[in-house]
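Re: Re: ligand-bound prediction request (bumping)

Still looking for help on this. To restate: I need the protein modeled with zinc ion bound, output as structure tokens. Inputs repeated here so nobody has to scroll up.
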Amino acid sequence: MRIARFSFEGAVTFGVIDAEAESVAVLAGHPFGEPQPTGQVLSLSDVRLLPPMLPSKIVAVGRNYAAHAAELGHEVPEAPLTFFKPSTSVIGPTENIAYPPFSSEVHYEAELAVVIGRMCREVPHARVGEVILGYTCANDVTARDIQQREGQWARAKGFDTACPLGPWIETELDPADLAITCTVNGELRQAGRTSQMVRSIADLVVHISDAMTLLPGDVILTGTPAGVGPLAIGDEVSVTVEGIGTLTNRVVKRG
Ligand code: ZN
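Reply:
Sorry for the wait, this slipped through. Here it is.
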């Protein structure tokens, strides 16, 4: 099932997209638990897709692909390296990445995003599947120069528009070995597979939920494969994850 969040005639709702990605069945309320269709069906072309979730927090994992850690001159860390991106950094599939004026080196990072489906803490390994609603594409947009200059990554990875998510949440997906790519203006820049992750998604959910309560809609970014590089104003950047779809955003000057 593909769950989208969208606006239509001024109202924001969730819906389930059909197999051909032509229509969307409107849901009453939120998509957690047992989704309740209202019976209303809209043409996908008539709605505006929004970020598929507005998370209370985004917990991201750094250096979770060995080849990416190596390209930035780092070892794979002993324990997963985690950081936050704020809720205010989230944009959807129709919005623009606004180049932050304090940086001159903004990079794309294609990532698989995990969307949490129920409140949880200290999730045992065997029950991780129960707390996951589904998966979507993410771009962990990063001001690399600021990241290298500042000890904490809050500004480098947390500026407004630094977390494109979408285009929707796929709930029936085995995330163990999916192709993940990034293109800029149609040119392939990153091509990896989720099977190259140092820590599995289950390991990451266990590790993060050992420390903090995860709420429905919270998002975990699972790291980026090798091939990160710069974006320029005017670029169109696309993240594709096999079995989910493609998230495309344009880079613009901050208005
Ligand atoms: Zn990242």
